[in-house]
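Quick one:
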Amino acid sequence: MNKNLLFLLSLTFSFIGSYTKAQSTIFSEDFESCGHGTRYTEVNSHSDGGSDYFVRTDGSSGNTTVNCVSTSTTGLSAFLGMSNSFYYVGEDIDDSNLLPDSGYVMFDDIDISGFTNLEISGLFALVTNGCDNDQYMKVSVDIDNSGTFTLIGAFRTVGGGNVVNVSQDTDLDGAGDGTVLSSTFQNFTFNVIGTGSLIDIRVMVRTNTGADEFAFDNISLKGTSATTTWTGSWSNGIPNANMDVVIAENISVSSFTCRNLTINASKVLLLGSGQTVTVTGTSITNNGFGLIAVDAAGRLNLDNNGNTITLSGNISGGFRGIVEIQGTTTFATNGLITISAPSASSFGQVTGTGTVNGNISMQAFLDASTGRYFYLGSPFTNAVLSDFKESGAIMVSSSSSQGTAWEWDAANAEWDPAGGGNLANVATRGRGYAMYAGMNGSYGPFLIDDGDRTGTVSISGTISNDATVNVGLSYNDGQAAGVSFVGGSGVSATEGWNLVANPYAAIYDWEGQAIPADMSSAIYRFNGTNYSAYTKGAGSASRYIAPFQAFFVQLTANNPTNLVFDRDNRAPTQPATRSKTAAYSIDGADLHIEGMGGNVYDDLFVGFETNSTSGFDNDWDARKLLNKGITPNLYVQFGPEAYSVCRVPFTGPRSFPLKLDYVQDGDVMSISADLSSLSSFGKLTLEDRKRNVMHDLSTDYTFTQDNGFGPDRFILHFSQPSIGIEEPKEPTMVYGYADDNGLNVELGILHDATVEVYNLAGQLIERGTSLNGKATFPIEKNGLYLLKVTAKDFSQSLKVIR
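Output:
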């Protein structure tokens, strides 16, 4: 019994494919993934488990799909020459007349605007034991949804019944007269007459026996794209995604999208502030000076999913905008692009989810006019440490006074020579390094060989837009090592420090970072003299971390883990100097202290948070890391904890004892406060114990540093609460603890306190009067001691174990 089958495949495509000068691939579908419901819709696809089917398959009976649902099909014949693995095949699709004798897969409305010389290609094959005259495959098109399909290609029998061969019908007269189909796929190309805006393509198959298997694969549409040239205006109209662009003049161009881009000899494509060029084809040919962005907001988007955009020609002089490799696009650089950094706040970036094939050179700007250390890291997968220095500059990795490049060994809490003493080793992605730049007295230059020691280092390597990057964190309590950069000596201050770095070639937003369970949320940066901190909206550092930037984080328990960076947290359009965030309601004051005519400074945040406690909170507070050289250190001291960001609940203390460590005795200094984010209180007062002055910090406070008075000179007072009617009752907080110096009492805001020290026998062994700030009693004998603290309207006893 003859079984008539009509299988209809109607294809419409999106922009995917490769490009040559004569022809651009507008669409290509190889069926390697099922596109039902997304790229096309199957109708009447099915399998009865035997020899009646229309399926997507790789030729194995168990690896077939119907509407993207796995099914089983037996009786599949072996085909050869597929484009990859999967193809479509049908046999006896009407299933003994139980189903309709037609089926199709529909892809609607391929955009062909701007294309001419259209042609359709595909792979076709057949396994048969004899075909009747009414079996065939046809390729037809409908331009601009006219409702009528025009036949452009067909495969038919020659004539007569039970004909073995099916061949191409070259003249479309209804009889095969060309190449014979076989079980090996062969490529055929059909020309399309005319063009328009949209096109539908239909591949139709008809069979009437159960022994005929028609198959097809790798359908593609190509055409010649139009070209428009920039000579101060567009020669062929404003370009679109289907047009090639030629830059023939050095005049700034507005944002545009094109297919392929060519820059003529001695010419440059200049992008103005915020302007974007999007390339959707396969080539950027730089015969001139390349692309230049006037600022970091210029953008080059590479958008050709599943395909490669290749850069060729001359080396680009430097692009300081954003290069985004979108989707599954691959960018083949041929080593011809440099991402520039003309200043610390203006630099290029590489972002997106696509793949970079080939090296990229990327600059890091360093102001080393005053020789100092920088905390740096590599966003490359294979850049070596020696790449961080310019030719003619010095970089030394050595465990000696000559060393200028170091890495922090978190497991042992110590500085080790970078790369184990070998600068040819790879700079581990996501790891931070301390590198000295500039001059050190008459020695140098280090890293940078520019005359003023201000400029860029250029690092080359492979950039990866990995979805996540895992950076291992190690633990040491820091007690034996004597960690010297923290403002405290207890375990809570010295433990768990790790120096990590932004592993991406784009600005990273710490606000979206997933924080491991035993890690503080704060980050700590270093600029060669000052440490700055950021945690949840507060602190003088920025939440936005620039490429190459390294920073400290702190584990708070002996639980080594991974810090997982996520590419979704990249924020290339944000300035890396911006620090505040709308994600949190910040309530507090930013304090800034300056000395030596503004040449030295420090910053401190003190405020209030409902979810915080009166102790150190990993989520809300940041520790004080000690600045270098003669730079002042201003911080809050509650017991053994030193804070650079200190937040307490509104019902907690509203007076904060400050510490000021500064070696420049007699220097005229000033303290100012930014109160713009303070909401819980209406007034902030600075108490100067030495001068017995209460100063309203709505204006700056100027004083002369007196090292003879000690570090406990200032207390910060918040008053005039905006919450409730009465002043909240403020707890007075004192702390007792032991260290190598003996027994210590932090008296906080108490004035003229008396402290008595008793042993377990109740004997008074030490007594101090008129005490302020911190009191230390040089007791060496171990044991349990009782410290009784009294002051005006205050009395409290503390137990301290020595």
